[in-house]
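User: FAD-dependent oxidoreductase, Deinococcus radiopugnans ATCC 19172:
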Amino acid sequence: MHGPLLDAVVIGAGTAGLAAAYWLQRRGLTFTVLEAGDTASGSWPAYYDSLTLFTPARHSALPGLPFGGDPEHYPSRGEMIAYLQTYAAHFGFPVRRGAEVVALRHEDSVFRVQAREGRAWTARAVVCATGTFRQPHWPELPGASRFRGQVLHSSQYRRPGPFSGQRVLVVGAGNSAAQIAAELGRVARVTLTSRRPPRLVPQRPLGHDLTDWLDWTGVECLPLGALGRVPDVQPVIAVPGLRAALQGGNPDLRPLFGTFTPAGVRWPDGQEEAVDSVIYATGYRWNGGYLPRAALNPRGEPRQRLGVSTALAGLFLVGLPGQRTAASGTIRSAGPDAEFVVARLSRFLETSLV
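Assistant: Predicted structure for FAD-dependent oxidoreductase:
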């Protein structure tokens, strides 16, 4: 059974989806938010326990509701979960939990959104806000099938305790790779290994948060997405303790190993070393396999410009890295990007009635 025809369905109740819900509500549009999990907090409950935001609370709030506590503090994973749940409840968004979308069809100018357990919704427009966390990227490295040790993705990592006393390799050069490796270095012998070394940037240059400098310069306001997807430069934020851990040599930094061996890895210089666990902190791929094939490019990514589908009228996207500005895909950009997209969605609804 399909319910009443809505103006929009938002798929995903993380930061991007809830920001879209805010602007849809502000415009008086009818909508519902579909969340695969059991809380209105997106993928945050599944991140590793010690995760702390890189941006202070005053840059980490969604539109219409400030983040609680000291505006200069850096919120934890648990605080972010609580904030998102409070946000959804504060505005009374119609969030449908346990609604994992598996199919999206577009017929006769109406979208039909199907959840795995059978529920379905119809709407004149759809906002995809499913992000990437449900699609971990597993690189194909030589000899991986022969390795007898433990291999996992950072999406499966929670805390360092189970790795105590082990020899661990963390593969990757981004923020998660560096932070997980530094945390593991307190209980294990760790190497951070990647094709290129991580590029560390200070979290508070000259006493001000990095995001303040980006805000003051206006760099993150430039709509570079109009020219195509904005490249992800992936600097590693030198949060407290990270630089000291790297300088202390645990973790140490090494170029990516050449191949797995049954007991470990072989490094580029030919040296073989026994390894207990390898953690891939190698990022994610966009999570939108429910979209019609025509809406995707050959890489499986949405055909879009500035969050508006270029292949399917009425389809919009939020939360994509690089979709509109250099900050797109971050919490601080969720509100502005969603406002931009919902304005385009509202215009679409108005013109499609003519």
